[in-house]
Amino acid sequence: MIGFNNWSVGLLISWSVKSMSKDYYKILGVGKSAGEEEIKSAFRKLAHKYHPDKEGGDEAKFKEINEAYQVLGNKEKRQKFDQFGSDFEQQGGFGGGMNWEDFMRQARGGGFGNGGFNFNFGGFDFNDLFGDFMGFGGGRQRNSSADLQMDLALTFEEAVFGVQKEVDIYKTAACDNCQGSGAEPGSKMIKCSSCGGYGRKRVRQQTFFGLIETEQVCDICQGSGQKPEKKCSVCHGQGIMKKNVKINIKVPAGVENGTTLKITGAGESSVYGSGNLYVNLKVKNSAEFERRGVDIYKKLKISFVEAILGAKKSIATLDGIVSLQIDEGTDPGTKLRIKNKGVPKLNSRDRGDFYVIIEVEIPKKISRQQRKLLENFDNE
Which side of the chain, N or C, has fewer Cβ within a 10 Å radius? Predict the structure, then answer.
């Protein structure tokens, strides 16, 4: 019978966590004091360089970069990473004061089998050891689905009012031939002979503790208990294939440059499910308008006579042409407001305002008569 004590388990867990920890700062090439913008800039540069759809791209490197950004780009996750390392999500705080009783309580509560802990020592998965051997809920099914990143260019107006765009993404998705079943059309699914239709099977592993028997998800049917009688001739029974997929992206009104949209389930597909698609919005500047938060600014040039005497001007806004009254004696730099003609506020019916900045044009050349009139005006 194999026995465990506080010291041995604590030592193994501590050694395992430290040995597996990744340095996300090193992966992104930034220092630990890097700010949000520096981290975001580093990620975009590396993601662009290693994107698997590009020539010379590296899918494994791209996934590693994305993993690092998902942590360092999130304030709460970054704080936990700085404290516990890259395995903070699996540790659940273990090693920060958790005693043996807390550890066992966490394990019995499903911590090992449901993502609370994730330990590996010398190639042996301690999730199986503690989850199956000690009776805490069984082995853990790993999800190998991958999230994807992409940039989406928007015009100034599209960002203000929102837009729907259809994009093509080359990714793993359900096989066109078998519709994701893995079976050749016309054939049927049969009981998995490897696990007897149970979806799980017993596996013996030789460890430094001795021979350990664990129950794991069947590697043939991936836990379904069934397999194709005849494998799909296109995907060879995998149920997935690489292909171009059209994805509809709904951009809400009022988004800003740098906003990231999450589209659940639109990432890479696998037998375990689908990852997410993260869309980084790139908003083009406008030659006519300037955005400041939810307000829009526009410059309007008027003559010095209009500034003195006043005038009514037609001005183009994001909603079309409006009439604007220029009062007598308007100074250069005067800011005039048009209410509710700015940017829609996210998840609200309210809008910002539209501001017109007055610029007074001074003529470079005037006639003799104009000069005489101005001199008389000045003398009066």
Answer: N
Q: Are both 314 and 366 inside the same structural domain?
A: yes
Please say if the pLDDT value at position 255 is more than 90.
yes
250 phi/psi in degrees, rounded to 5: -100, 110
Separation CA 294–CA 341 (nearest Å): 10
Which one of 284, 302, 329 terminates a domain? 284
Range of the domain at 314: 290-379
Does residue 77 fall inside a structural domain?
A: no
**279, pLDDT greater than 90:** yes
Distance CA 310, CA 253 (A): 36
Residues 271 and 311 in one domain: no
Same domain membership, residue 335 and residue 279: no
Q: Strands 277-283, 290-292: parallel, antiparallel or unpaired by DSSP? A: unpaired
Give the whole-angstrom CA distance, residue 218 versus residue 40.
40
* Length of the chain (residues): 380
Q: pLDDT per residue over 156-178, tens digit each?
A: 999 999 999 999 999 999 898 98
